[in-house]
Amino acid sequence: MLTTDNIYADVDKWLSEIDYGQAPKNLYDPIRYSMSLGGKRMRPVLCLSTCALFKDDYEQAKWAAMAIEVFHNFTLLHDDVMDKACIRRGKPTVVAKYGLNTAILSGDAMLIEAYRLLQLTDSPSFSLIVDTFNKTAREVCEGQQLDMDFETRNDVTAEEYLEMIRLKTAVLLAGAIKIGALVGGAAAQETQALYDYGILIGLAFQLQDDLLDSFGDPATFGKAIGGDIMENKKTYMLISALSKADSSQRREMQNWMSNPDPVREEKVEAMRRLFEATGARAATEDKVKELYDEAMSKLREMEIPAEGKRYFIDYADKLFKRNK
Amino acid sequence: MLTTDNIYADVDKWLSEIDYGQAPKNLYDPIRYSMSLGGKRMRPVLCLSTCALFKDDYEQAKWAAMAIEVFHNFTLLHDDVMDKACIRRGKPTVVAKYGLNTAILSGDAMLIEAYRLLQLTDSPSFSLIVDTFNKTAREVCEGQQLDMDFETRNDVTAEEYLEMIRLKTAVLLAGAIKIGALVGGAAAQETQALYDYGILIGLAFQLQDDLLDSFGDPATFGKAIGGDIMENKKTYMLISALSKADSSQRREMQNWMSNPDPVREEKVEAMRRLFEATGARAATEDKVKELYDEAMSKLREMEIPAEGKRYFIDYADKLFKRNK
Fold it and tell me: What values do phi and psi take at A88, rounded to 5?
């Protein structure tokens, strides 16, 4: 019986067996460090489990799954450089530990390594798999650029925010699932439906993460609560709050957002209160539920074995329960 | 008759037809800008002309040649970020024009684009071609890391310097030639001999470039003369100078190198004089000649048509005459 735990154990073992390289140490040590920071390994697990829906074993998707995880960690590494982030999963980021230039270059080498791993995939759909990987990788860059563009804009809409997180976060989850389906030999229609499921779950996951950034438990979240609030990040929740606020609430929010040197605890507390009072927290929770339900209905419509559907439903449930 | 000018015109046309993408503008404009900075397009020209040695036309190597040129420009873009360089080919670098984060991310997207282009190659040797590309890309990163490592070391040897420039510069020229040979269907022995030629020419080219950095004509060099001297860069020439110097010359060099705020013209003039006086300039010129001669003898030994050999001999001559 297919379980996420089995697959997770294989992912961990396979990742630990990748030979990134030895010399120069200053190039390869940061890659090993970056990969050792852990995480839920969601993308390779989804890639492999999707493959297993259509084939007896998922070994054939091994290299693509590894490529996707290395690519994902490359994006985290370079994003941390761009965001000047110091902490990732409770530990120093690569840029904080090794410096700017090493972080840039090690990230470049990781992207090259991701393509080397992908190349090892043996599948009749190889060319489609690489196309999917390339398109996804390109879209992730587009998402990161939109995220940076939004920092200096005050008129970002909820739709634009959702499009940004679709590109920055959802396409890689959906791409991992799609590549698993392609290796597994799924029909075009199922492959597309699974991709759509991945996008919806990815969007829901990111909105849930945004909720946690403001309202999560500091003990389990892995970084400081209120990061988005302190950066005035134009999240779905902030955009909702600004649009739902009455004039005094809007003034209060704008005061906090334009304060160049607020006391962290005070600003975070005030904005959290405003997210609640305006109904923006509830609106974000509703949007998560709406996306989640839509993802579930995509699954139900699909012509795949009941066991497979069950697996994806359980996976999504686990993902969201764990983070609540 | 195969000429570099014909091929150069095709390279230019093909490069101009690549659709890098439109939105977000802040991601794709810097890529177009980077590619528009020009240059000699040595790598794609070498790739295509090598292919033409073994086949009637070189169209089949088009995408690999494009991939190599986009990859090369990606490395220049990220190197400029790491070196905080402001000028490249007489124009502002991407990082100077667009800022740090955009330069990092646009570079990432260029690397992904290089792989997308490579993927379009239609050849029975596809898998070997991608292996060569991956290995080369990885080695270029290793070379860049060694270059950065050497900045903080005072005991770099001439052999270590040559190994660094082999990785940072020569392998990409040699890789371009090898990929051209693979697409052309060359036998393994010829492919290897052409690769070796590429390494030797690449090393000679970089040492020649180092000579120009100190002794070139400011009007044609494209950046300010003396950059390496100002950074105390441990080039073959500086390493030779330190090893050949008498005690008073060594003291003078060390004084200039440890001066935290020297007058540029004075330091450059003094170090140039010392490179001449110690015989380091002549030693570097001798090394260029030695590598060049070795490259030529590699060519002579090869079992390829005389026209092909002639082409590579002329190409190398042109390359070196142009820069003298």
Answer: -140, 125
Q: What is the ipTM of this complex?
A: 0.94
Q: What is the pLDDT of residue A324?
A: 45
Q: Tell me phi and psi for residue B92, to 5 degrees.
A: -60, 140
Partner residue opposite A105 with nearest CB, options B100, B131, B141: B141
Does the pLDDT at position B324 exceed 50? no
B109: nearest CB among A101, A138, A148: A138
* Cα separation, A110 vs B305, whole angstroms: 41
Residue type, B127: S
What single letter denotes the amino acid at residue A37?
A: L
Q: How far apart are CA B29 and CA B16, in angstroms?
A: 14
Angle subtended by helix axes A236-244 and A247-258, to nearest 10: 140
If one counts every other C-beta atom within 10 angstroms of the C-beta of residue A83, the result is: 17
Query: What are the tens digits of pLDDT across the range B139-182?
Result: 999 999 999 999 999 999 999 999 999 999 999 999 999 999 99
Q: pLDDT by residue (tens digit) across A175-214?
A: 999 999 999 999 999 999 999 999 999 999 999 999 999 9
- Contact across the interface for B134 and A112, Cβ inside 8 Å: yes
**Alpha-carbon distance A249 to A117, whole Å?**
52
Cis peptide before B24 (omega within 30 of 0): yes
Torsion angles phi and psi, residue A265, rounded to 5? -60, -40
Residue count (chain A): 324
pLDDT at A86: 92
Is B111's CB within 8 Å of A109's CB?
Answer: no
Q: What is the pLDDT of residue B45?
A: 95
Is residue A277 scored above 80 in pLDDT?
yes
d(CA A319, CA A305): 22
- Cβ–Cβ contacts within 10 Å for residue A317, how many? 12
A interface mutation test: which of B63, B108, B127, B171 has the most A CBs within 10 A? B108
Per CB-CB distance under 8 Å, the chain B contacts of A26 are 145, 148-149
Contact between chains at B78 and A134 (C-beta distance less than 8 A) = no
Testing the interface with A: which of B138, B160, B171 to mutate, by most A Cβ within 10 A?
A: B138
Tell me how far apart the alpha carbons of residues A307 and B228 are, in angstroms, rounded to a whole number: 65
